[in-house]
Amino acid sequence: MKSPKQFELLINVGAAIAGIGVIGYIAYAALHKDVDQPCSARYPAATRFSLHNSEGKPLSAIALQARAGLRDLGVIDNASVVRSAGGPAEDVLEVKLRQLPAGADQDAAAHNGIEFRWSPPGMRPATAACLSYSVLLPDKFAFGSGGFLPGVFGGSGGLSRDSAGGLSVSPEWDGDGRPLIAPTAAGSIGRISGNRSALPTGRWIRIEQEVVLNEPGKENGQTSLWVDGALSLDSRRVLLRKDAGETLSGVLVAAGYRGKPPEASSLQLSPFEISWR
After folding, report:
1. C-alpha span between 232 and 33 (Å, rounded)
2. How buried is 41 (Cβ within 10 angstroms: 0-12 exposed, 13-18 middle, 19+ buried)?
3. pTM across the whole model
4. Neighbour tally for 14: CB within 10 Å
5. Which among 177, 262, 265 has a CA at the least distance from the CA of 227?
6. Residue 40 · residue 226 · CB < 8 Å
7. Of 16, 19, 45, 96, most Cβ neighbours within 10 A?
């Protein structure tokens, strides 16, 4: 038979173990709260890329190209602002996923879809950003050998996603339609896989992407991806920069296949929204 002191000791030990469990749960919840919650709920008010002119009318292809900046790929050939039928916005950006004709740009023939950069005023010092938009992949969409969607860019590289010196983090899909994240730094591309579910087709889906730059010299950068509010991918050991002077600059508006399009197709994108800190 246990003595009163032994019984009291057992009660105290049990209480201590329970207390440690509660503290551990609270710590776990605190650490994972931000991961589970889409980034748009945790960042300041977003800045939107408007698809309308000052009169509120949809942008023409030429006006869209002018807003795209100094250089673009495929905007005139493959992009247009169209009325959305039941989408998240009244007007959306439709992208034809077809090969670009050879022209003055020697790299054009190796690309399809579109690619340009949008830098909202005041963003350049940012070291963390949250990008959100919706995408419509047609029913029975051919995923081909994989493709890419709009992401975040920084650094001082050229236009292309794989430019030397460039920094970008873009959502992609593989040959089975499963989501990936492709961080590119100094011309080196790495791909991080997420869950095993393919991106839905035939309906609008919500994409949210968070990018947090690493401390120089440390592999502690972060990239997370949510699809329809569910966390699809989260990596917190990403090396994106070596210099503290490299910051995030804006949205890399790129959509297309990684290789030759398997068939004539298109996709639609809602206006992009980005916030930063």
Report:
1. 15
2. exposed
3. 0.84
4. 10
5. 177
6. no
7. 96
Residue type, 53: N
DSSP 3-state assignment of 115? strand
Residue 104 one-letter amino acid: A
Residues 130 and 180 in one domain: yes
What is residue 35's three-state secondary structure?
Answer: helix
3 state SS of 55: coil
Rounded Cα distance between 272 and 51, Å, is 9
How do residues 63-122 score in pLDDT, each as one tens digit? Answer: 999 988 778 999 999 999 999 988 999 999 999 999 988 765 656 666 899 999 999 999
Q: Check: CB of residue 167 under 8 Å from CB of residue 241.
A: yes
User: How crowded is residue 224: how many other Cβ atoms within 10 Å of its Cβ?
Assistant: 23
Asked if 180 and 172 touch (Cβ cutoff 8 Å), the reply is: yes
Nearest to 48 by CA among 249, 262, 260, 251: 251
Do 99 and 74 contact (CB within 8 A), yes or no?
no
Closest CA to 67 of 82, 88, 48: 48
Residue 227 and residue 231: Cα distance in Å, rounded? 7
Domain count, the chain: 2
Residues 1 and 100 in one domain: no
Q: How far is the C-alpha of 208 from the C-alpha of 191, rounded, in Å?
A: 17
- Cα 166 to Cα 153, 204, 240, 271: the distances in Å are 8, 30, 10, 24
Q: Let me know whether 31 and 44 are in one domain.
A: no
pLDDT digits (tens, 9 = 90+) for 202-231: 999 999 999 999 999 899 999 999 999 999
Distance between CA 108 and CA 101 in Å, rounded? 7
10 Å CB burial of residue 42 (0-12, 13-18, 19+) is middle
User: Residue 235: beta bridge partners?
Assistant: 223
